[in-house]
Amino acid sequence: MPRSETDLIFSNKQSKIKDFAFDAQVVEVFPDMISRSVPGYATIIETIGRLSQQYVTNNSNVYDLGCSLGAATLAMRKAITAKHCKIIGIDNSAAMVERCKMHINAFKGETPVEIIEDNILNTEITNASMAVLNFTLQFVEPEQRQSMLNNIAQGLLPGGILVLSEKIRAEDRTCDELLVDLHHDFKRANGYSELEIAQKRTALENVMRTDDLATHTKRLKQAGFRHVTPWFQCFNFFSLIAIK
Ligand SMILES: Nc1ncnc2c1ncn2[C@@H]1O[C@H](C[S@+](CC[C@H]([NH3+])C(=O)[O-])CC(=O)[O-])[C@@H](O)[C@H]1O
Ligand SMILES: O=C(O)C(=O)Cc1ccccc1
Questions:
Q1: How far is the CA of 57 from the centre of ligand 2 (A)?
Q2: Which of 16, 63, 125, 203 could form a disulfide with 20, with the two C-beta atoms 3.0–4.6 Å apart?
Q3: CA dihedral 131, 134, 140, 144 (to 10 degrees)
Q4: In this predicted structure, what is the pLDDT of residue 1?
C-alpha cells in the first residue's frame, strides 16, 4: 500500500461529532489510519495472502467484501498460484472505489481484478473458493449480518474459506474494559491524542456495533460453515477462519 497522509481527522475539537463515514477525507489518510488503529493489521493482510495461495482453486472467484483501498486484494493477487481465477473487490464508498482502482492499476499481477461500487448486501456470490470480510461486517446493520453470511456460505464451493476479521466486544464487562484500554494505549503509542481517541470513539458509536466472539461463531455455524476458529487476537481485534 502506498504511503498516505497522516490521519489528523479528529485532532481538532469538534463542537458536534458527525457519524464516521468512509468519505474522501478518510480515503486520503486511510492507510495511515488503519495501520495506527488496528493492531495486527499488517499480519492479517499477510496471512490473507498466504491463505489465498492455499485455498484458491483453479477457475474460481475470490471476493474482497468491503475492499477499501484493496490491501487484501493486492495481497491475494500476489500470492494466488491457481489459474483462471478472478478477484472481485466490492465497496459502497465511491471515494474508496475510485482510489482503490488507482492502487490496483499501479501494480502488475496475473489474476484479473474487478473493483465494483456496490452494497455487499446486494452482491451475488458465485463459484467462490475464498471470501474476505476484513473489518467490514462490523459496519453492516446487526440484523443483516446473518443473511450476509448465509449468502457468502451458499456462494462458496465445498472446502471454500471465509476470513472474517472484526473488532469484538468481550462478554465479560471487566475484560472488555481492559481490552478497550489496551487498544487505546496502542493508539496513544501510535501518536493519537486523548482528544483524537475520544472523538473517534464517539463518531464510531452509531456506525460500528460490535458483537462478541460467541455471536460470531454461532452465526458462522448457522450459515453452514463446518469448521470455524479464531486464528488471531490482539486486544479486542480478532480474525476468524470459516471453512465450508
Ligand atoms: N454495506 C457495505 N457494502 C460495501 N462496503 C461496505 C459496506 N459497509 C461498509 N463498507 C466498506 O467497508 C470498509 C471497511 S474498512 C475495510 C478494510 C479493508 N477490508 C482492508 O483490508 O483494508 C474497515 C475499517 O476501516 O475499520 C469501508 O471501505 C466501507 O466503505
Ligand atoms: O480506530 C478505531 O478505534 C477502530 O476501532 C478501528 C477503525 C479503523 C479505521 C476506521 C474505523 C475504525
A1: 33
A2: 203
A3: 30
A4: 57
